[in-house]
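Repro:
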Amino acid sequence: MTGIVHTGSMHELAQIVDLDRYPLHEPESAAYATAVAAAREGLRSVGCAVVKDLVRPEAVTLLNNEIVERKHTTHFSTQVMNPYFHTEVNDEFPSDHPVNTFLERSSGFIPGDSWEPGCATDVMFRAPELARFLADCLEIPELHCYADPLAGLTANILDPGQLFTWHFDTNDFAVTVLVQEADEGGLFEYSPAIRNADDEGFDRIAAVLAGEREGVHTLDLRPGDLQIFRGRHSLHQVSRVPANSRPRHAAIFAYTEEAGVIGRLARTQQLFGRVLQAHVDAEEQRIRSDALID
């Protein structure tokens, strides 16, 4: 187990997280070890772990209220894009290739600079106990809160009629908390380990994009569930929220293995509609970790 020095308020974290069921503050306890073991099994087998009811029911309401209060800062966008977030045809590939298969993405993100320090969502995101727990689940030495000023702490919004189509993440893993589920639709679906650093898996990706369901998992997420997901190599989407449904709200907590990481310029512009000088500076110094299309 990794070690992180506690610097926050346990009283605040205890109001948000069910520390009786998941004693994040007691990493040597049997309950902590059980939760970590279950998450590791899911991540090893299908690249995904769900920690059910991590957030207390009353805190789910609080987190959702914070999203609603900040929803006016959401950057909504609709694009027709391929799974790699590209929007232009690439003539080096056939017209029916995944690189040239474009699907609708319509959703919104509340940016990181909308959350003031000390709000419940921020307290949970920055709790060193949660970072230690996630690092243990992922079997890595330590995690740092993503330093990106827009993409570190965010919320993904799917209003009625919207969907977040099939795509890959640029980060190796993502951490989300479902805060408000849609009345129907808005389902998280994924095809685990469909590609790797040595194989883009184009044939398998093309099959999923064409509607093939073999190997596609659908998660039964409920408000308060925390999800750890390896999205760099697993194709995934959130299905469309019907026009007569309430919106789907999910908090997104981004962490990195190295401190001080800033997101990619193009992806930041797509998701938040703007970039800051920090993104420009980081892009000039960036070194890619793999040769995947993106």
